[in-house]
What does this fold into?
Amino acid sequence: MIRVVLPAHLRTLAKVDGEVQLEVAEPVTQRSVLDALEARYPALRGTIRDHVSQRRRPFVRFFACEQDLSHESPDAPLPEAVGTGAEPFLVIGAIAGGAAGGEIKP
Amino acid sequence: MSKVRVLVGTRKGAFVLTSDGKRETWDVAGPHFAGWEIYHLKGSPADPNRLYASQWSGWHGQVIERSNDGGKTWEPAGNKFVYDGVPGTHQWYDGTPRPWEFKRVWHLEPSLSDPDTVYAGVEDAAMFRSTDGGQNWHELPGLRGHGSGPRWQPGAGGLCLHTILIDPSNPDRIFIAISAAGAFRTEDGGKTWQPINRGLRSEYIPEPDAEVGHCVHRIAMHRSRPRTLFMQKHWDVMRSDDAGDNWREVSGNLPTDFGFAIDVHAQEPETIYVVPIKSDSEHFPPEGRLRVYRSRTGGNEWEALTNGLPQSDCYVNVLRDAMSVDSLDKCGVYFGTTGGQVYASADAGDTWKPIVRDLPAVLSVEVQTLA
It folds into this structure.
């Protein structure tokens, strides 16, 4: 069972409290985890990855096991501890996200 | 007894304000979608309990929300906005070409007759339509494709399609406006479009009376006279009586003709409202005095409405989607400010009171008059 921790805005959108647990087939990668997450919670489509390019949104980052995996290949295997459920896969909003993209509409 | 519902989009969530027809006491519900920027909410004229909301954040991009119970509960709808074909380029701020890129939905305009049909005005400027309650969105590509797209450029808020007006007498006729491209009209439900900017003059483009390039901030219409349009341009308040074919300036005695919002009285098609803002670089009321100006003559002759509005040290802005009217008698007029106040007048602007004073910056205000 894969554990995924979502930022507060996405927990609200997906209507979940706390961690999400997902069944993910091997190999466990960013792509397979996010595919499973979006299949379970369709409202999250487009909010972590671009709908078309499937690239990570610029103000979203991926952490696990105290490592920044944001710039790893989406098809690279995630750390074994994520695959076993010992450690969660963290979807994080960049600390600058709300301000840098949030100009008030004139 | 009649009821009024005011839908307020703010920089940090949505609020639903309700009152009875007296409009004296208000219930404030929210924030919905706390922490998200709510660019716009609007109800379906065909089913007032069907609401749509445009929800956006710098982290997670665009979400569309839908309510079937007047805003008590909400469900996410579809958020996939993909331009038709190869998007091409528009102008960047410095005039260099830049590829079209979807950023956010500025305005949602439900169909007049079908609760499941809704139009979306987006940045970078384009028009999308959903016919299944917001689940799936398809561009109306004739607008960007009509030929002038490479000459459109962003206004200060981006290259946004912010105004959508559907002609009540002919739903195939739709008016839209883009900052900074100008106004456009379709006569065939969005298949083909033509620019309608003759008479506009803008000193910030190389050819001041060009066919496109004008920073139109807002257009308003009275439903009984859909060929008469009122426009708040970047500078200048304008009027057309031939469905946008020709415009003439009606700024008259306004203290400044810069501004964002404009609207029309619900029962008097020649009574219009604007909120003059000092200038393009000083986005606050002249002299720090918040004044709505009303013309009962369709422009040119304006009177300041000040009773109940702050008349000193007021430096808020009123954004383009942040003014609306109800359809009660007397007409209620509402506007929100970047300081978080929502002001209401239950007597067509003669007197004003704040419904709420301390919301996040208000981005949009829409009013529903309910039976």
